[in-house]
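How a chain folds remains the central question behind the approach discussed here. For one protein, we set the task of working out the structure tokens from the amino acid sequence alone. The sequence in question and its structure tokens are set out directly beneath this paragraph.

_____
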Amino acid sequence: MNFSRLLFCTPFYTFMIGLSSQAYAQQDQTLETITVTASGIERQLAKLSSNLTVLGQDVLREVNHQHINQVMSRVPGAWVSRGNGQEHLTALRSPVLTGGGGCGAFFMAQDGISLRGLGFCNINQLFDTNALQAQRVEVLRGPASTLYGSNAVHGVINVITPDPLSNQAGELGLTLGPHDYQQAKFSVSHQQGEHGVMAYGNASHDGGYKDDSGFEQQKLTLIHQFQGENWSIKNVISGANLAQDTAGFIRGFEAYKEQSRKRENPNPEAYRDSQSMRAYSLIDYRPSEHEVVNITPYIRWTDMEFLQHFLPWQPVEENSQNGAGVKLSYQQVQQTFSWIAGVDIDHTQGELTEFQAEPFAPHLPAGFHYDYEVDATVIAPYAKAFWQVADRLELSAGVRYEYTDYDYQNNLSDGSACAPEVTNCRYTRPSSQQVSFNETSFEVGASYQLAPNHRVYSQYSQGYRAPQATELFRLQAGQTVANLAPETSDGIELGMRGQTSGLFYDVSLFAMEKEQVIFQDANRQNVNNGETSHRGLEFLLRYQLPKNFFVQANGTLANHTYEADLTLSRVNIKGNEIDTAPQHMGSVQLGWQSPDDKQVVLEWQHMGNYFVNPENTADYEGHNLINLRASAPVATNLTLAAQWLNITDQDYAERADFGFGQYRYFVGEPRSLFVSLRYRFD
């Protein structure tokens, strides 16, 4: 780790960690918080042997995000990098990962059900779910494949929908902002006896800060809930639609600082259209006080079309998938020994086409580059146990086996997509084939009570992901077969969490090694001999100050490096920092909240510097942003809120990278003001 890069922020982090000897606990996350995401069964946060961050309704309402990036900045070790419109890239204890398989390192879910079929992820898939109006968002960092299987290499983001029986008030909201930004949202619910129903959703319009950009987006969720003596059933239907005019990178060193170029859009023709739908039932049967049977059948559908504006020849991709599955589990919960065993079954039919309207070069021809279908089947039994060894010590262990099968059908001619005389064709279509993978993972953990409300925890866990369909079947440069194995990761963490009357804290150290990393080499072949290392410290602190003031902070100090002996541009990158992997990032909120629901929150967001290429010859200097959010009741059940973002009008890039020999930037927006009205009714 290059510690000279950390010197300026070390005094701040040291001061914030020192607060853990004082005190604060916020309603969104306390030791008593009940969660399922990290353990598979209902357990208090206090007893978990791993990290978990919970973003509850209070935080989601306060931030009232226009982009998921804004609220995810409250999670240590997480960076959901903001692209244009609703696009994003994700990092959880990792660099920002890109490419066809980059999204495969993260398990992204709604109520524990993957947003996309395994093998068919999309780097922007969080825009399929309605995090803005969720009950909470839970983020688990580090390998988690024992419970979640393929894709949980670096972590899990789980969006939890509200329960109609617990949400008896309705709400109407309106937000207005710059560039003709408008968002309307609603929520209504009704309860009668053991039944509750709820509908909520939002519609957004953004005229776009960049020239010829903007989006229209709609989201709707319908929920029915039944709570009987032994049965609990929650039926959910949710859908999302996005129609986006996408602005591309601007190019040139520190171009984001040039006032005349900030609104520049080199790709006014770019677009992304996406639709998704999910329907499922969360069925919970309790035959006795200590037994629980869970049955979760689901169906899932997505369709997306977009212009690949980041490639000079600009092909259009269309992908779609239809899937169905069921998650089955049985658990016994006793005072000293509890366990869960289950099986996840998923079948997805995916399709992908890539079409280029105009010829660019002989090796980049017009016409269809790819047209294929893949039937994917996943079967995965698992088990996990929890043993209260002594009054203060609990141990846990889990294991999972997963079988993945891809049945691929090429709908075009096999081999080169170019004319017969072209020898260096960019696109290669493998012949129809069937590929399968078998993978096993396990985890062990411990939680020890040092004192009432103070615990240390530790866990060793494994993660893996089967290759994505695009990595296996969307080949280039004459590669006819991709002999890829699953990526694997081994992670260990040691942490301490606790609370007093005024403090909540969670501090963890982690180390992770990732092997068989899939990447495209200098010859444009998909290979899987990469190795990376990830080590760091994360913290989350909340402290109650006198007179209704509070301070909360999260931060990460980490080092992400290449460990394989690989050469790029005649440079051996072993030991180099991974590109787009800041060593330090975090945020601090200083707030005041009155007993009558007035609130003011001043926020500092810090993004450290990072390299933008594997050779470590180009970098981004990082940035610091100041935001101010305030809300107050102005009439009975009516609240006025405002967000003043980037109040110092900082020049910054949401994300920087280096491609085709040039610096490229997504420009951060200047100072902006958003005003909201929220009306609650019974």
About this structure: The chain has five helices and 41 strands. The two ends are 55 Å apart (CA to CA). Residues 10-18 form the longest helix (9 residues).
